[in-house]
Amino acid sequence: VKLAHGLLSGKYSVPAMKEEDNADSAKDKQEGIPPRMFKTVIAASHPEFSTMRQQDALEFFLHFLDQVERSNGGNPELDPSRSFKFGIEDRILCPSGRVAYNKRLDYILSLNIPLHEATNKEELKAFDKLKAERASEGKAPSNDEIVRPRVPLEACLASFSAPEEVQDFYSTALKAKTTAI
């Protein structure tokens, strides 16, 4: 209730007052909702998230969406978590020529990152040389020197949607295990 009140009332969205303004009214106002309070409310029913140990952000997000779904009591029209849900369709082509479609709903699109598609390959090679030199000296590169690969989102999506072989696929048409695409 406290979290809902904080989000909906506008009480916590008031800009911070300067010190020269009225000091009494500045004590009554707060600059937003503390992240710890938000986490405490959402994680209260989860044994792992209710601790102060490091947590996985994806697992917390899925737990949060689950809590939102439950709080709506099965009324899909009022469920804001539906905004994150999307459908994925797999097309499986058997060597017999038959095609099967598998559909599922998900909240997450797990993408592989094709590092060979990096746009800064020369910078990466130079960084690898620097890293090897520093390692031979017994040092590590500083945070300012670290170069990370830059891979376009389009390359990740192309990798996700590219055909791949499915080993040991049981074909009902062939009545045997085969390799499908």
- Structure classification: alpha+beta
Oligomer: single chain
Number of helical segments? 6
- The neighbouring-strand order within the major sheet is 1-2
Tell me the span between the first and last alpha carbons.
51 Å
The main pleated sheet reads as:
2 strands, antiparallel
> β content, as a range?
5-15%
**Quick one: overall form?**
flat
Q: Helices and strands, in N-to-C order?
A: HHHHEEHHEE
The count of β-strands is: 4
| Low-confidence regions | none
Residue-averaged pLDDT = 83
Binned, the helix content reads 25-40%
Radius of gyration computed on alpha carbons: 26 Å
Keyword list:
4 strands; 181 residues; two-stranded antiparallel sheet; flat; alpha+beta; 6 helices; two-stranded antiparallel ribbon; single chain
